[in-house]
Design goal:
The complex is a heterodimer. By secondary structure, chain A is mostly helical. Chain A is built from 28 helices and no strands. Chain A folds into two domains: 293 residues, MetI-like fold, CATH 1.10.3720.10; 179 residues, Orthogonal Bundle (MetI-like fold). Chain B folds into two domains: 216 residues, P-loop containing nucleotide triphosphate hydrolases (Rossmann fold, 3-Layer(aba) Sandwich); 74 residues, CBS domain Like (Alpha-Beta Complex). The chains are: A mainly alpha, B alpha/beta. Chains A and B meet through helix 10 and helix 11 of A and helix 6 and helix 8 of B. Chain B: Keywords: ATP-binding, CBS domain, Nucleotide-binding, Transport.
Chain lengths: 664, 408
Amino acid sequence: MSATATTVPKPKPKPKPKPKTAAGEARMRHSGGGPREALRRRRGLLAGGGALAALLVLGAVLLGGGTWPAGLTADISAPLDAANDWVVDNRDSHPLFLYFLLHLSNTATDAVDSVYQVLDALGWLGVVAAAVLVAWRAAGLGRRGLRVALTALGAFAVCGLLGMWDATLLTIALMVVSVAAAALLGTLIGLAAGLSDRVDRALRPVLDTMQVMPAFAYLLPFVLVFGTGTPAALFCTVIYAAPPMARLTALGLRGADPAALEAAVSLGANGRQRLWTARLPLARRQMLLGLNQTIMMALSMVVIAALVGAGGLGEEVYSALATTDVGKAFAAGLPIVLIAVWLDRTTAAAGDAIGTSAPARSWLHGGRAWALVAAAVAAAAAVRTTGWPDAWTYDISAPVNRAQEWITTNLTFTEDWAREFTLWLLNPLRDALLWLPWWSVLLLVAAAARLVGNWLSAVTATAAMAAIGVLGVWTKSLNTLSQVLAALVVTLVLGFLAGVLCARAGRLERWVRPLLDAMQTMPQFVYLIPVVALFGATRTSAIVAAVVYALPAVVRITTQGLRDVDPAAVEASRSLGASSRQQLFGVQLPLARPALQLAVNQGVVLVLAVVVVGGLVGGGALGYDVIKGLSRGEMGLGMTAGIAIVCLGLVLDRVTQRTSRAPR
Amino acid sequence: MNGDTRQTTGAGTAGAGTAGAATEADAKAGTGADAKAGTGAGTRAGTEAAAPVGDDGTGHPEPPVFAVRGLWKVFGPKADRVPASAELTALSPAELRERTGCTAAVRDVGFDVRKGEVFVVMGLSGSGKSTLVRTLTRLIEPTSGSIAIDGEDVLSMDKARLRELRRHRAAMVFQHFGLLPHRTVLDNVAYGLEIQGVGRAERRARAAEVVAKVGLAGLEERRPGQLSGGQQQRVGLARALAVDPEVLLFDEPFSALDPLIRRDMQEEVIRLHREEGRTMVFITHDLNEALRLGDRIALMRDGRIVQLGTPEEIVGSPADDYVRDFVRDVPREQVMTVRTAMRPANGATEAEQGPAVAPGATVSEAIEAVARSGGPVRVVEGGRCLGVVDDAALLAVVAGVPAQEVAA
C-alpha cells in the first residue's frame, strides 16, 4: 500500500455524513426529528452492551482464557508446500505452463530485456536527454517545464554519480513495462466500471480491498506460480499498481459533466462518438491522476519486488539491509527517492497542464515540440555514449558509514529510546493482547467493527480474525498487531497535533506541504534505511519507519478536514464570542469527524504496510515469516503469514472504516 | 409572430376551470381535449389543435412543427400503468406518489408549435417543463401520448432516424451550457457538425460564421473556462445554431446568468428570431422572460398546462386563480394591446378624426397618445378604423377591470 493511494479524490460533493454513532444520534435529538430514533438507538446500544457482558461471562465460564486453542487450527502450510513442489516439478511439462504461463513469463522477461537494451543503446547521454526533454515537454514548456526538467536532470545525474547507473536503468526498464501493462489493464477495467453500473458495483469492493492489502502480501502467490525472477516481480507490480488507474478512470467517466453528455446526445452523437468526443476527454484529468498514482505504486512495488528477484535498485537496498550496510543502502535508496520525485513531478505537471491554459502561441507547441524532443534524443543517442562513465562516480557509502558509526557511538540516546519504548510500551501491549482470552479478542473486534460500521463489516472483521486463529499464527499476528497499534497511537497523536497546527497556521502549512508531498511519493522500502541507521535492527525501528511513512497522509487529511469545515459554522461560533479553543473543540473537530476517521483508517492501513515490511529490519512476527518463506523457498510458512497479513489488514480496515462502503 | 394574435387557447387540457374528469375523458377519446371553450373574453374558441393536421381554420396550411397530444411522463416503478388507468390519472401528485411511488412529471399535455413562432413553456421548478422539452427529441422517453414533428411520428422512430432528428432538425441549448472544457470555442461550436461527420475544414468555416453571428468573433481560440457565463451561453447557442436546425429548443438557457446579461441574451434571441424566423421552443421559469419572448405561452403547473395563449391573453384573462396570482404584478399596460381595450367608434367624427395607433400597439403607447391629444385615439389597421380607445378604457386595462363592466 503506497501512501499515494490516499490522494484518491473522493467524489466532490461529499454527502453529509449521517450521524451513525450514539453521540451523533444524541445530538440529533435536539434537531427535532429523532427523539424516538435516538431512544431506539440507545436501547439497541444498551441491549448490545448487555449481550456483550453476558457473552463475556459465558465465555469465561465455558471457554476459559489463553490463546487460540490448538484444536481449532488447520495447518495449510503442508498443502501449500505440496503445491509449490508440484509447480516446481511440472513447470517444464504441464500444458498449463507450456501453453499459458510460460508464454506470459517469457513475454514479460523479453519485454523488460528489450526496454533495457533500448535504454542501454541510448547511452547515458541519450537517457538523460530523453528524461529531461520529455519532462520539459510534458510539464507544458515555459518556466514550470524548466523546473521539472531540472529535477529530471538532477535525479539522473545523482543516480550516475552514486554509481547506480545500471541498477537505475534496470529499475526504469521494469517500471516502463509494468506501468504500461498496469495502465492498460486499469484503463480497461475502469472503462468497464465507468460505463456499466453492474460492473462498477461488482468491482468496487474488490478494488477497495486491494487497496488496503500491504504490498508484501502480493508477492507470494506470484512466486508460487512463476518462481522468483522478473516475471513474478513484474506481474505482482502490475496487479498492485492497476487499481488506482481503474478507480480513477471509472470515477472520471462517471463524474463527467452531465450537461455536456446530454448536449452530446441532443446533437445526435452515437455511443462511440459520445465516448471518444465527450466522456474520455472529460475524464482525462482524472485518468492522468490515476496514471500518476499507478506510477508511484508501481515504483514502490518494483523496489519491494527485489525480494522476489526483480533486480535493480531494490535489489541493492535489500542486499545492503541484509548485511546492515547502511552506507550502501543509502547509495541505493537516494536514487529511488530521486526517481520517485522525478516521476511524480513530471506526471503531476502533465496533469496540471491539461486544459488549464490556451495553447501556447509560440511556434513551439503541440506536435512540433514532441518532434523536437525526439530529434534531440536521437542526436544524443547518436553520440554513442555507453553506461555512466566510471570516472564520474563518487562512493558515498564510506562517509555514510562513518557518520552512522559516529551516531551509534555518540548519540546512544536513540537506542536507549528504542529500548525504553520496547520495554515500557511495546512489550506490555503485546503481553496484554496475548493475555486476553482468544474469544474476547473476537468479541472486541466484532463490537468495534459494529460500532463504526454496519453488521456486514462486523461479520467480515470477525471472520478474518478467526481465520488468523485457524491458520495457527495467532501469537505472531497479535505480536504484529501490537506493533501496529503502538505505531498507530504515535502516528495519530503526532498527526492530529500537526494537522491542527497546519490548519490553524497557514504559513506553517505552506512550509510543510512540499515536505509532505515529497514524503508521500516515496516507496515504503526507503524509510527503513535511516531508521536502521538510528535505531539498529529492532522492532522499534520498524515502528518508527511506519510512523514516518503514515504521518504525511494523516497530517494531510486532518488539515484538509479542518479546512473544509463550513466557514459559516466557524464564523457563527466566532460571532457568538467563542475562543479559538472553543471553536476548535466545539465546531471544527466535531464537524471534521469524517475526515478524522478517514485519517485513522488511512493511518492504520499505511502503518500495517510498513510494519510487515519491517520484518526485514528486525520487526519479526508475520513480516519475518514472509521473508523467510521467500528467501528459503518455504512457501507454506510464507503463504500462511501472507494470508494472515491480509486478514489482519481486513480486520484493521473494517474496524476503522466509517459506515457502510456503499455510497462512497 | 404569426400575425394573428387573436388566436387563443385550444391545446391540451387548457381551459377555464380545468375540469379534471372532462379532460381525462377527452384524452381517452383520442381526439384530444382540445376543442375547448376559449378562455378569454373577446376571443373565439380555439380549434386548431383539434382539427386535422394541416387545416386549423385560421390560415396555417403547413403542419405544425411539433404536434403533441396526450403526453405523459411518469417516473417510478411500473410507470406505464399510470396513464392507462383512469383512477390513477385522477389522483393529485401527492396521492399518486403515496399510492404508487411514481411521480408524474408531465400529465396529459397537448399543444402545437407552429412554424416560425416562439413557443414558451413557463412554470415554476418541478412543474415538469424541463422534462417536457426533453421528451420532444426523446432525450427522455415519454410514457405515453404522441409527438409528431412536421407530421412525422417521433415515438415510432428507430435509433438511426432519431439520431437524424437530433442531428439536423432540433438542437437544444442547455441551462448549464454543457460545453466541452477541453475544446476551444470554435471546436465546441463545430461539435454538432463533427458528430454529423462534416469534414474539419468545412465545419470550422461554418462554425466561424456562427461564432461571428452570436457576437463572439475574436474569441474562437479561447476555452470555455476562460469565458464569462453569458459568453459561454453564446457558445451554447452558437453550437445549436451551427447545425442549422429547423427548431431550436431552449431549456432555461438564461437562468444561470446575471439579470443584466440575461437581458442582453434575451435581446440576442429576439434579434436572431427576427433575422432568421426560426421556430423556437423556450423553457423558462421567469414570467417576464416568457412575456418578452413568447408569441404564445403554455403555463404549466404540476405537469399540466393550465393555460395556453398569447401573453396578452394570459395577462388579460387568466384561466384560474393560479394564473391570476402569477400575473398579478405584471405591468398590464405593457402587455395588453389596444385591440382588447378599444370600443366601437361613436359616430363618424370619432372614426375619422384624431390621432391613430395600430391595433398591435400596447396600452402604454396608447396612453401616451391619449395624454398628448387629450381625447380618444383611433385604432387603425390598413386605413380602416377598428375602434377607438379613450382614457376610461385604458384606465380599465391598467386597473384590471373587465371591459364589459366599463361598458355597463
